[in-house]
Write a structure and sequence with these properties.
heterotrimer, A alpha+beta, B alpha+beta, C alpha+beta, A: alpha+beta, Ribosomal Protein S5, domain 2, 4-stranded antiparallel sheet, C: alpha+beta, OB fold (Dihydrolipoamide Acetyltransferase, E2P), 3 domains, 4-stranded mixed sheet, 5 helices
């Protein structure tokens, strides 16, 4: 059922005191759990649980023709399906704009950060490269599918193993894995979505909080030791109807730095 | 007879390790996971609920709507997201099978949606899906005459076996592989799903169906255990 | 509180059996025998097959005298006439309000069933997103007819909404309202428990409302356990001490 006016009001009133129903403060994440290798036929897979939100991502590798303007680079195609089984609000049918937007934001974050060294996926310049197919599926929606999807995506990419490939015959032996991973760098992108409710900004909303949110902005960041800030922003997208004041955006950019470091640590601990 | 010892060492009438759990998707009215070895199926039920568009409603009873699909990376060669012809067929035969046990006469004009998603595939996916769906429907409090259990039996060359794995499905020597998914109603033993693909004699078929019936009794015990395990949503 | 007393009356008549928390119950599996014998009568969720009474639903088997029922553990809300429920306004038409009761049928509250209504714009009375306590007059597969005419029915102001499974409502209310009254006293909140599992909580502070919400969810999570009232009293004692 859609959120009621009375609950929305209560969420806003409580937030005015910097409090949330589940006891979190505005910039607290819920408990995050990552499980790796949840689907063995994938070259890499991961399931992420953020509170009650559950998302799974998988990587398949194929051979493909490179794009004409990137003749020596491997390809990446990211798709996302917000499955009807994960929430009564998703209907069967062609991908919704929500799932399309989610996939594209995650894709940009991965592509622009330099997380994957696409040049190392080249087999023969201008003719043959490895293509990464990254697919994301929601399994239970309790808000913030995007951030959970981002974590699932990079986790699946991190544990992915290249399949056996016969270059002469141009045949991939699916199911036969090598011990070689994808050409991954340390520039792991993580997406964080900030939501505006009244005058307050929060992160990692539950579904109820998400329904109360008036505007949101997603930032994907990655660690860059060479920069004074230590991080760089690699993708961003604002969504929903309401607007942000410039001061609010500045607060968000600052907060993103701090929260990225925290989120990164949480993830690194589990990737070990 | 070229295939006497099974690839994974099982006896011809031995099942893979099974596992079942209910209430695995919090938002759902009912849900369950069922495993045959490496094959993992998730089933999720929403309903009974309002059915739109109105012309699809049945004034005599609620309708069951089954959607079977596989995660793109659940299989060795990626499956493009979205319904395929195969998944549409599996959805339909699954719907017929489940319809033989559910009783939706108390809910006219409504729909009960059953979503089956294969998380990891190593043959027997539609059977794992039916086993999970039966649990999900029960856990959703949907009226059911009895439970239903499904298994894939088959013949590899001349050997009759139960619970095929992918390697067995792909066997090509001798008489090749015959794949027979069957579902039985748990108490009455009546057949609610029956498909066949391969080459088999009627006598062999009769024999292998008996093996399937026995295997489904084992499967039913696993399903019952999952239902009896009291863990609140 | 008047509203909640209305609920109590309905509960006592039909569902008092379900809240006997000291009875041990077995899990019923569809198609499996619950009990054998020609004397038994099959109730809700059960049927007769020859000598046996067999389950037609998954839940807890309940044998009271000769009557054998299956109490569902979960599942969608099945609306019944006379139920007092809480619904959300989803649309406003020229002569009433369409509502979502989390039921399998659409429901409609006509202006004629709202005594407050005099004239003018319907949205000034009830608007989309408002939660209204209503009573079910009629259930037809074409839709559910609602009324808000009785005292205690109408729009809920302030507070928050919590969702529980409708099958847990008798437990949350308790015998003669004992459980819900305990929670109301301990948290100093007004609470209305709709038969459809939609619960409204209003306290002076949001903290009190959240306390009541947690207590209700605690009852729901332990609903099959024996001696639940004592456990809830202990729950509140521990909260007070911490």
């Amino acid at each position: 059922m859609e959120i009621s006016n009375v609950t929305k009001k209560r969420i806003k009133e409580y937030l005015a005191e910097d409090k949330r129903f589940d006891g979190r403060k505005p910039f607290d994440f819920r408990d995050i759990k990552i499980e790796f290798g949840v689907s063995k036929n994938a070259e890499g897979s991961a399931k992420v649980t953020m509170g009650n939100t559950v998302v799974v991502a998988g990587v398949k590798i194929e051979t493909a023709e490179p794009y004409t303007d990137h003749e020596e680079e491997g390809t990446l195609i990211t798709t996302a399906e917000l499955l009807p089984l994960s929430s009564p609000r998703f209907e069967s049918g062609p991908p919704s704009i929500e799932s399309i937007e989610l996939a594209r934001i995650i894709d940009r974050g991965i592509r622009e950060s330099g997380f994957i060294d696409f040049h190392k996926l080249c087999i023969k310049k201008g003719e043959k490269v490895f293509g990464i197919l990254l697919d994301i599926f929601s399994l239970n929606d309790d808000g913030n599918l995007l951030d959970a999807a981002g974590i699932a995506a990079i986790s699946a990419l991190k544990v992915a193993k290249m399949p056996k490939y016969d270059e002469k015959e141009d045949v991939i032996s699916y199911g036969e894995f090598t011990s070689k991973g994808l050409p991954i760098t340390e520039k792991t992108p993580l997406a964080m979505t900030f939501h505006k409710i009244g005058n307050k900004i929060i992160i990692d909303p539950t579904r109820e909080e998400e329904e109360t949110s008036e505007a949101r902005i997603t930032l994907a960041l990655f660690k860059n030791k060479d920069k004074k800030d230590g991080v760089m922003i690699t993708a961003s997208q604002k969504g929903n109807d309401a607007t942000f004041k410039i001061e609010e955006l500045e607060e968000i950019f600052e907060k993103a730095k701090e929260k990225f470091k925290e989120l990164n640590e949480t993830i690194e601990e589990q990737v070990k | 007879m070229t295939y006497t010892k099974r690839y994974d060492g099982r006896k011809h009438d031995e099942m893979r390790q099974m596992e079942a759990k209910i209430n695995v998707v919090k938002n759902a009215d009912g849900s369950a996971m069922f495993k045959f070895g490496d094959t993992i199926a998730l089933a999720v039920v929403y309903g009974p609920k309002i059915l739109h568009p109105q012309h699809m409603q049945n004034p005599r009873k609620g309708i069951l709507r089954v959607n079977y699909d596989m995660l793109s990376f659940s299989v060795p060669e990626r499956k493009k997201p979205g319904p395929s012809r195969r998944s549409q067929e599996v959805s339909k035969v699954t719907e017929w099978a489940l319809n033989s046990v559910v009783d939706l006469e108390s809910y006219p004009n409504t729909v009960v949606d059953v979503h089956i998603m294969i998380l990891q595939a190593n043959a027997g996916t539609r059977c794992a899906g039916i086993n999970a769906a039966a649990l999900a429907l029960a856990s959703a409090g949907i009226p059911m005459k009895e439970m239903i259990s499904a298994v894939a039996v088959g013949k590899i060359d001349e050997t009759l076996i139960v619970d095929l794995i992918k390697e067995e499905e792909d066997y090509e020597d001798g008489e090749g592989a015959t794949d027979i998914p069957i579902a039985f109603l748990a108490k009455s033993g009546e057949v609610a799903l029956f498909q066949l693909d391969g080459r088999i004699t009627p006598a062999e078929l009769k024999e292998v169906v008996k093996i399937g019936r026995k295997a489904c009794k084992e499967i039913y015990e696993v399903q019952k255990k999952a239902l009896k395990h009291m863990e609140e949503k | 509180m008047f509203r909640e007393q209305e609920n109590n009356e309905i509960i006592e008549e039909s569902d008092s059996i379900q809240i006997d928390e000291h009875k041990k119950r077995e899990i019923a599996i569809p198609g499996e025998k619950i009990v054998s014998g020609k004397d038994f009568l099959p109730g809700d969720g059960a049927r007769r097959e020859g000598e046996d009474i067999v389950a037609s639903k998954y839940g807890l088997a309940d044998i009271s005298g000769r009557l054998v029922k299956v109490i569902p553990l979960s599942g969608a809300y099945i609306p019944r006439p006379g139920n007092v429920v809480i619904g959300r306004v989803t649309d406003v038409t020229f002569n009433g309000w369409l509502m979502d009761l989390k039921a399998p049928y659409s429901s409609f509250l006509p202006v004629s069933e709202v005594s407050r209504f005099v004239k003018g714009d319907l949205t000034e009375y009830y608007d989309i997103g408002d939660m209204i306590v209503v009573k079910i007059d009629n259930v037809k597969s074409k839709g559910i007819d609602l009324t808000a005419k009785l005292r205690g029915l109408g729009k809920l102001e302030r507070g928050m909404i919590v969702f529980i499974n409708s099958n847990k409502v008798p437990r949350v209310i308790g015998r003669e309202g004992s459980m819900i009254n305990l929670i109301k006293q301990e948290t100093n909140c007004d609470i209305v428990v709709g038969q459809n599992g939609i619960v409204w909580i209003k306290g002076e502070k949001v903290e009190d409302e959240l306390k009541a919400k947690d207590a209700i969810l605690f009852v729901v999570s332990k609903s099959y356990v024996e001696g639940l009232t004592e456990k809830v009293e202990k729950y509140f004692r521990e909260k007070r001490n911490s």
